[in-house]
Amino acid sequence: MMARSQQAPRLLLAILVVLVAVTYQAGKKTFISVHEVSMSGSYVSSAMQFVTSQFNKESDEQYNFRIVRVLKILKKVTDHMEYHLTLEMRRTTCQKLEAINCTFQEGELYKQIHCYFSVHAIPWFEKYKILNKTCNDG
Prior knowledge:
Blueprint: H1 2-27, E1 33-36, H2 44-58, E2 63-77, E3 81-95, E4 112-122, E5 127-137
Antiparallel strand pairs: 1-2, 2-3, 3-4, 4-5
Signal peptide: 1-27
Pfam families: Cystatin
Family: Belongs to the cystatin family.
């Protein structure tokens, strides 16, 4: 009878230790997966449309830019998704308020850039946020 009464506090202590460990791990946002995905992957096109739109809204350029080539897409999954997009973009003939049938600029107005975007995504709620953006002349 005495041995059984001593096991209860040990069992409760073990349960407490496990709960503390699980809570600590949850706070660290342990990665479930990180892998390269294709443009046809789910929600990738939405993320690319978002970064293009945000880039053009925030840009001081008179003309919009459009993605020419996708160099790499990584998807990181934790309690949300993050897309890491490496893209080539070019200046188009469409000005800020235009967005249909935009061809690429040639000649004197030609400009191509390489951009890296890190995007926090909760695509099932259509929520995106750019965490990091770096663009260089290409």
